[in-house]
Amino acid sequence: MATEHSRRLFFALWPEESIAERIAAATALHERAAGGRAIPPRKLHLTLAFLGSVAASRLPCVRAAAGALRGAPFELLLCRVEHWARPRILALAPAESPPALAALVADLWRALAACAYEPETRPFRAHLTLAREARPPRGVRLEIDPIAWQVRELCLTESITDPRGARYERLQSWPLAHDNLGAPASPNAL
Ligand code: ATP
Ligand code: MG
């Protein structure tokens, strides 16, 4: 019997090229100080939900889950360079995670439950990985001038293993549109 084809998938936010270039320029010194493997601008992304290996038969459910989301666009002010010791990454994070982002991640996992995916147990920490196998960067300020990123869509992405670092293919995007006006109010809404 043939084994079912599966793909390594995750939902992410992808900055447009101009924002990715600004991030790379603003963090070049940090990347140099941290060493390791810098992520090129075209690969910079913010992971919302990592699914891992997804069998082809489950893909329609995953797409439907994303399609049913009622999100809203929001702004991320990227300004904090962080070193995360355990995964040994250098990351760029927003000063504050806007409620719309937390709501998007929670809604996404709720929708994915219909496809039998379980939410992460770790709390979500919004970040873009800048470099891997990174040391703590010394002698550089960890604040950068805020880069305002207008987030307008989420994207289902495939990660293709490559010895030089994963390659990413964007499979489908969904706009975060203000189209939730007709949606029933949450029972918990005040
Ligand atoms: P590589 O593993 O080749 O260094 P990568 O980590 O970017 O590259 P993937 O492992 O396929 O590629 O991960 C894709 C995205 O999902 C990345 O943003 C990664 O940080 C994130 N990710 C990977 N594994 C997990 C996980 N177990 N939980 C949450 N996020 C994850
Ligand atoms: Mg990985």
What does this entry look like structurally?
The strands form two sheets. The protein has a five-stranded antiparallel β-sheet, covered by helices on one side. The model is unreliable at 180-190 (pLDDT under 50). The longest helix is centred in the middle third of the chain and has 14 residues, at 99-112. The protein is built from four helices and nine strands; from the N terminus they run E-H-H-E-E-H-E-E-H-E-E-E-E. Strand 8 (153-160) and strand 9 (167-175) form a beta hairpin. It has helices at residues 17-26, 28-34, 59-67, 99-112, and strands spanning 6-13, 37-38, 46-55, 74-84, 89-94, 128-132, 143-151, 153-160, 167-175. With 190 residues, it is α+β, with helices and mostly antiparallel strands. The structure holds adenosine-5'-triphosphate and magnesium ion.
Q: Helical segment tally?
A: 4
Bound molecules: adenosine-5'-triphosphate, magnesium ion
Helicity, as a percent range: 10-25%
pLDDT < 50 runs, ≥5 residues: 180-190
Radius of gyration: 17 Å
Rounded mean pLDDT is: 92
> In which order are the strands of the major sheet placed?
2-6-5-4-7
Major pleated sheet:
5 strands, antiparallel
N-to-C series of helices and strands: EHHEEHEEHEEEE
